[in-house]
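Anyone up for a design puzzle?
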């Protein structure tokens, strides 16, 4: 009996999915008992030598169904990069069937899947786990999608939902204000560089003389300019005068000067590889596009020029395009300031790729034809090399998207609006993109207390220690008995008043430090070694200053500055006259 063809091919009919080894794509090896425990190439060699016995014909139906499902997904537009993940996950499942002598019948597929999922759960949750919980859940999800389609199970009752496997969310690290600022600064710096770069990479510049000099905004890069040599390198000439050059040196110089002159043909080596300048601009424009629209890389890379539909929307455009994974149209906004950039880019790319349908086409590695893989839009080799050479931080598309989402969330404070602009549900936004933000948390806490504080902002007045209160003294429960009762006259009593509101200012920190110095003087002149009220006030003031110092770099600077002032005899006006009187005495 002739065996069916079980090789997974590309939708175009080629034998291999580009770089993926042919043997790994051949499901024929799973027809043989024990083959799953060998590497793909080794298993096929053993099969050809007859070392693994006869094929198990009852397995054909399941393996054909698996092959057809994967090919169907490729035809419908799913990335070819998903195939290796499918094969690797299927190998684990088929090894489970083979090792445990389970039936390969499609009738038993659902029961076998549930048993395999239970084993994944046990392996991931025992004390000495041999499998990561997210890895276990990921395998179950992939198999659930494949087998659910094969068995015609609706997506609303997915197989994985009938297992005990659940996604295990990773803890998100909070981001303080300094890190947020650095992230935004790096993003803006890269963005400014890219905008200046694309402005200089015009059609005329690509055809013009080399090296191409592109002016940059002041302070962005050294000498405020970028030099591009396309496929040429900066030549180092001998230090001897030209009339003493050898024949070879003269010929080398003439060839270099010829390639550096303006020319119309930019393809291949003959045009000094000027096609690299086109690829460089496309990569830069692609990153700018991602930053402006917020759509993900995979979706943007596949956009076609002919499928974009523009609709005026106030000061911006609403752009619609077809998204295969969603099975319908998706929309995003192009801001008014970006509109002329996009129009200019479309003219640029139409000139160099008049026949291409892609919005972001690239030349292949030979510089002759359009690249089929467009790996430059995932690896960004040209643009990253240029950024590194000019000390510009590299912000990946993923980081760029995350920074954009969190910036929008911080500025708007509206999770639903941010999710809509990022083309996600609120749940996905929270789980995948939102980063805990110290700055946003501080704003939310401040807003909460401003709203729920029993003392309204309009009722606050100045206290006797340079902070705020409502002028109605009331002691806290932890006030030491020896310390004076709050009375809006005795400064020590303010520190244990329910209605005291600390001020987040440098002046207040200076006042606290000066008051502590005053109390230190009082303690030093008290003729006793027992604890006195001034000791407890000093402890309270030290705790407040310690909090200011540890809460943020800016507040730490306030504390350091206050200490330096005290050391120099520069005291807060609230306390200076008393301190100076005691020091003179």
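Challenge accepted. My sequence:
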């Amino acid at each position: 009996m002739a065996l069916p063809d079980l090789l997974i091919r590309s939708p175009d009919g080629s034998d291999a999915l580009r770089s993926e080894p042919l043997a790994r794509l051949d499901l024929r090896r799973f027809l043989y008992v024990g083959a799953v425990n060998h590497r793909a190439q080794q298993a096929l060699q053993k099969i050809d030598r007859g070392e693994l016995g006869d094929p198990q014909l009852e397995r054909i139906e399941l393996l054909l169904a698996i092959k057809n499902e994967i090919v169907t997904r490729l035809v419908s537009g799913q990335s070819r990069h998903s195939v290796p993940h499918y094969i690797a996950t299927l190998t684990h499942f088929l090894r489970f069937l083979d090792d445990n002598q389970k039936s390969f019948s499609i009738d038993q597929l659902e029961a076998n899947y549930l048993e395999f999922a239970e084993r994944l759960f046990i392996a991931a949750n025992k004390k000495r786990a041999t499998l990561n919980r997210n890895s276990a859940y990921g395998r179950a999800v992939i198999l659930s999608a494949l087998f659910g389609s094969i068995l015609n199970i609706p997506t609303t009752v997915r197989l994985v939902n009938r297992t005990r496997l659940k996604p295990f969310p990773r803890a998100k690290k909070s981001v303080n204000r300094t890190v947020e600022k650095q992230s935004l600064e790096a993003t803006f710096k890269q963005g400014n560089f890219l905008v200046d770069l694309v402005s200089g990479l015009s059609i005329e510049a690509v055809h013009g003389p080399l090296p191409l000099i592109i002016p940059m905004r002041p302070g962005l890069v050294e000498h405020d300019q970028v030099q591009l040599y396309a496929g040429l390198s900066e030549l180092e000439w001998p230090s001897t005068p030209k009339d003493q050059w050898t024949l070879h040196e003269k010929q080398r110089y003439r060839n270099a000067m010829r390639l550096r002159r303006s020319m119309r043909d930019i393809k291949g080596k003959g045009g000094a590889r000027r096609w690299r300048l086109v690829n460089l601009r496309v990569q830069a424009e692609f990153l700018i596009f991602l930053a402006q629209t917020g759509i993900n890389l995979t979706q943007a890379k596949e956009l076609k020029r002919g499928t974009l539909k523009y609709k005026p929307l106030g000061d911006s455009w609403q752009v619609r395009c077809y998204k295969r994974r969603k099975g319908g149209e998706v929309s995003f906004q192009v801001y008014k300031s970006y509109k002329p950039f996009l129009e200019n880019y479309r003219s640029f790319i139409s000139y160099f790729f008049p026949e291409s349908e892609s919005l972001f086409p690239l030349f292949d590695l030979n510089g002759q034809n359009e690249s089929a893989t467009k790996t430059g839009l995932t690896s960004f080799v040209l643009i990253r090399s240029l950024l590194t050479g000019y000390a510009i931080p590299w912000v990946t598309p993923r980081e760029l998207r995350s920074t954009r989402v969190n910036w929008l969330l911080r500025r708007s404070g509206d999770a639903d609006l941010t999710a809509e602009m990022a083309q996600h549900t609120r749940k996905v936004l929270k789980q995948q993109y939102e980063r805990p933000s110290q700055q946003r948390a501080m704003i939310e806490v401040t807003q909460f207390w401003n709203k729920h504080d029993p003392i309204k902002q309009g009722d606050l007045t100045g206290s006797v220690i340079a902070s705020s209160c409502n002028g109605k003294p009331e002691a806290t429960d932890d006030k030491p008995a020896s310390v004076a009762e709050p009375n809006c006259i005795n400064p020590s009593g303010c520190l244990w008043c329910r209605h005291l509101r600390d001020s987040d200012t440098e002046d207040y920190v200076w006042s606290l430090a000066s008051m502590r110095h005053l109390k230190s003087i009082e303690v030093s002149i008290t003729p006793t070694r027992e604890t006195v009220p001034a000791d407890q006030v000093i402890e309270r003031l030290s705790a407040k200053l310690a909090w200011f110092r540890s809460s943020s770099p800016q507040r730490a600077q306030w504390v350091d500055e206050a200490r330096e002032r005290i050391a120099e005899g520069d005291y807060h006006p609230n306390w200076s006259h008393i301190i100076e009187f005691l020091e003179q005495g």
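A detail worth pointing out: The CA atoms of residues 109 and 147 lie 8 Å apart.
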